[in-house]
Specification:
mainly alpha
Length: 63
């Protein structure tokens, strides 16, 4: 479960643009809404589809 607390010792936050900070804040808020959650089964299905796709061989040393 995500946490709403920001770590004051973190140094990467200040390296983000205000727009990036805003987008991260929005994503964090959206992550608390259970309607946005994806089940483990659905995630596994998506990953399995990606892993099973046929890709062309682009390395000429592989036949």
């Amino acid at each position: 479960m995500p946490t709403k607390e920001k770590n004051p010792d973190s140094d990467w936050w200040d390296e983000l643009t205000p727009n990036e900070q805003s987008e991260l804040d929005t994503a964090l808020e959206e992550s608390f809404d259970e309607e946005n959650w994806v089940s483990n089964e659905e995630s596994q299905s998506i990953i399995q589809q990606w892993l099973n796709r046929d890709l062309p061989i682009t390395d000429p040393t592989i036949s």
